[in-house]
Amino acid sequence: AAGALLIHLLKRLANGPNVEMNASRVANAIALMKGYNIMPGLNDGPLLDFMYGPMFVVAYTPAALATSPSGAIWIGILQSFLFILAPFVYLAFTSSEQRSRLIAAVAVVCFGLFCTFDRGLSWVTWYIMADGPALAFAGFACALVLRRRTNLTTPQMVVAALFAVLAVWSK
C-alpha cells in the first residue's frame, strides 16, 4: 500500500506542471517572496489570482524557493501531500504505545490511498490549494487535543487554539 501511494505521488508530481491551477496558486507564494503585496489596493501592484487568507500563501513559501516554475509546482504538490498526512504522522509518532504507533502508521498509508480515490480529498492532496494548509492546521489542533487523555494545560490549549486560528486564516 505504501508503494502504491509513493507511485501515485510520483505520478502526480510528474503531471503537476501541466495543471494550470497549480501555477496560479504557487504564483502567490512567489509574489510574496519577491516582496509584492499579496493583497494590493486599487492601482497598487500586480493582479494576483488570490481570494484566500494569508496563511495559505505563507504555508506555500517553501515552493517559492525553487529555481524553476516546474520546481516550484513540484515542491508545492509535495507540500500539499504532506499537509494532509502530517497530523496523522504526528499522532503516529507521539503515541507512547508501540502497538498504536503501528496502527497509526497503517492509518496514514490507508488515508493517503483514500485521498487518491475520494474526489474532494484528491484535489486537496494532489494539487496546490488553500484547503491543504487549512486541513493541516485544523488536524494539528485536533491532534494536540486528542493526544492528551487528561485535562489540557493552558499552554496546550493556547497552541491548539493557535492552530485552529491558522486554519481559518488559510481558507
The ordered H/E elements are HHHHHHHH
Give the DSSP E fraction (strand runs of 2 or more residues): under 5%
Largest β sheet strand count, sense and barrel closure: none
Average pLDDT rating: 86
Rg over C-alpha atoms, rounded to the nearest angstrom: 17 Å
Q: How many angstroms does the end-to-end distance come to?
A: 31 Å
Q: What is the total tally of β strands?
A: 0
Helix fraction by DSSP (H/I, runs of at least 4): over 70%
Structural class: mainly alpha
Principal-axes shape call: flat
Unreliable sequence segments: none
User: Helical region count?
Assistant: 8
Describe the structure.
The structure is a single chain. The chain has 171 residues and is mainly alpha-helical. It has helices at 2-15, 20-33, 54-59, 69-94, 98-117, 119-126, 131-147, 154-170. α7 (131-147) packs antiparallel against α8 (154-170). The chain is flat and about 55 Å long.
Fold topology:
Blueprint (H helix, E strand, L loop, with lengths): L1 H14 L4 H14 L20 H6 L9 H26 L3 H20 L1 H8 L4 H17 L6 H17 L1
Helix pairs in contact: 1-4, 1-5, 4-5, 4-7, 5-6, 7-8
